[in-house]
Design brief:
about 80% helix
Length: about 70
């Protein structure tokens, strides 16, 4: 039986934060691209946002257990 120690908690928090960094950066990048395109031409911003949302959905579906890649 393993005993969880108080010093393991910061390590678990850092591991959880590291797993979210890539997702947060992808979302922030997608928002920046969509807003930038929207500043140039508003319909282009909506189109870029939709395309990036579809791409994000595909990436999220691939991460789920039991998806196409197992």
């Amino acid at each position: 039986m393993t005993v969880k120690k108080a010093r393991d908690k910061p390590r678990r928090v850092l591991d959880a934060a590291r797993s979210w960094v890539a997702d947060i950066l992808l979302i922030a990048g997608a928002v920046m691209v969509a807003v930038g395109a929207g500043l140039i031409y508003v319909p282009a911003g909506w189109i870029a946002g939709g395309a990036l949302a579809i791409a994000g959905g595909v990436l999220a579906a691939k991460k789920e257990p039991g998806g196409d890649d197992g």
